[in-house]
Specification:
Structural class: alpha/beta
Radius of gyration: 23 Å
Shape: globular
Distance between the termini: 31 Å
Strand content: 15-25%
Largest sheet: 5 strands, parallel
Helix content: 40-55%
Strand order of the largest sheet: 2-3-4-1-5
Number of helices: 19
Length: about 450
């Protein structure tokens, strides 16, 4: 069984006095249902489970009064012996709650009543054109937790890397000393594996159990098809084809030297006004992350972000690689990607940062100066350059030579090498990106 960080968040939620109903929000097939039910069965005597996606008829229980005793009566009639309600000992798990807007409205009644805990999961919450809105969104009556596919650290756990080894990596980063060679080589290997496998639980479990990359790829492409099916099924009619076109353009967007998202790449002659809502739909579904350009390299990053100038990355790097042609997985595992390797490893770092909860930023000027990512690190505005192997970082040197203009005094270069320091540039192996937390 895969160990997930959401377990700790669920425990903290349950241990919080007078806690509200919980919503776990995330893209399809990232493990929400499994984690919610696993936690529920470990921590409650009775689990009442409804999946509104698989059983739309369950929504009828919420079609009338939302008073809790009435709902208990209706659910008991609907589920029979599978619905046992006991104060303080029962949790109600509402899977794919966006398929029953009235169930989400009912959360405020469960919150006021307080006898039973409620955990809801939602894949397309807030997605435009999905369906009916709740009668009343329970503002203040629910706690929302974002869940992602497995991040790199969870992937390490799945592959037998102990917490002690992760702690040792953190110590090497803090002391700016090289990682012991045996561990360094193991981590380099695991990073390439994560790049192609990604973090979708079914793909990770299959990889851990079998190491069969063809089966991993089949699972990933099935997930991509399910996303495309959602776009056709749930989007508003006028947006269906546009959303799919936006989604399918992502590999082409990232293959460009200037990776700024360009609507003309989606379809020749296209404009933002035609496709901006389509891109928003994909982002709201948890499939992509935007990386906004900064007007200046200065904190606060969010305040200096340009709303209309951005790159787009897949939230999960394994799914991104699966969208490329056959043989790409093998090329990555062998370290052979040629001109496209920059796009793959940038998406890898975007995957790692976004699953840490970081907003993504970069810096680009028409002069050609470009910094792949800019983060807040140790209280400073810090550029992060991504190199698939070794390589020069001309833009880094330029901004560091002009601290008065760019407000940058330290920089990080991620690449295929061990920890080192050269003046103001800290060089780190790519696999250490997940340790660049904001203190």
């Amino acid at each position: 069984m895969l160990k997930r960080k959401i377990e700790q968040k669920l425990t903290e939620w349950k241990n919080t006095p007078d806690h509200k109903p919980l919503i776990i929000k995330g893209c399809r097939q990232c493990g929400k249902t499994f984690s919610a039910l696993d936690f529920a069965h470990k921590n409650y005597e009775h689990v009442v489970y409804l999946n509104f996606f698989e059983n739309p008829d369950y929504a009828t229980a919420f079609s009338g009064s939302l008073e809790i005793d009435h709902l208990v009566m209706m659910l008991s009639a609907l589920l029979g012996k599978d619905a046992v309600f006991e104060t303080g000992r029962t949790v109600l798990v509402l899977d794919e709650i966006q398929d029953c807007p009235e169930a989400r409205t009912a959360l405020k009644f469960f919150r006021t009543d307080g006898r039973y805990d409620v955990i809801g999961t939602g894949s397309l919450l807030g997605v435009k054109g999905y369906g009916r809105e709740p009668r009343s969104i329970p503002v203040g009556s629910e706690t929302i937790v974002d869940m992602y596919p497995l991040d790199f650290e969870e992937f390490l756990w799945a592959n037998g890397v102990s917490a002690e080894m992760v702690e040792l990596l953190g110590q090497c980063l803090e002391a700016e000393t090289p990682v012991p060679e045996a561990l360094h080589q193991r981590m380099r290997q695991l990073l390439l594996q994560y790049t192609v496998v990604g973090g979708m639980p079914d793909a990770v479990q299959t990889f851990v159990d079998t190491r069969q990359m063809d089966e991993v790829l089949r699972i990933q492409r099935d997930i991509i098809r399910s996303y495309e099916d959602d776009m056709v099924k749930y989007a508003e009619r006028k947006d269906k084809s546009r959303i799919k076109e936006c989604f399918q353009s992502i590999p082409r967007q990232l293959s460009k030297e200037n990776k700024k998202f360009q609507y003309s790449v989606v379809k020749k002659g296209s404009t933002a006004s035609k496709y901006i809502g389509s891109l928003q739909w994909i982002e709201d579904a948890g499939i992509i992350s935007r990386c906004h350009n900064l007007s200046i390299t200065e904190l606060p990053l969010d305040g200096n972000a340009e709303e209309d100038v951005f790159k787009v990355y897949m939230k999960d790097c394994g799914l991104f690689v699966s969208m490329l042609e056959d043989g790409t997985q093998f090329d990555i595992l062998q370290g052979r990607l040629y001109g496209y390797k920059g796009a793959v490893f940038e998406n890898l770092v975007a995957d790692i940062f976004s699953k840490m909860g970081k907003k993504l930023y970069y810096y680009h000027k028409d002069s050609g100066l470009e910094l792949d990512f800019v983060i807040r690190y140790k209280g400073e505005c810090t550029p992060v350059e991504v190199k698939a192997a070794t390589g020069n970082a001309k833009s880094l040197r330029t901004v560091l030579r002009h601290p008065g203009k760019y407000h940058i005094r330290h920089a990080i270069k991620l690449g295929d090498y061990n920890v080192g320091k050269s003046e103001a540039v800290l060089t780190l192996p790519l696999y250490m990106a997940f340790l660049l937390r904001t203190p």
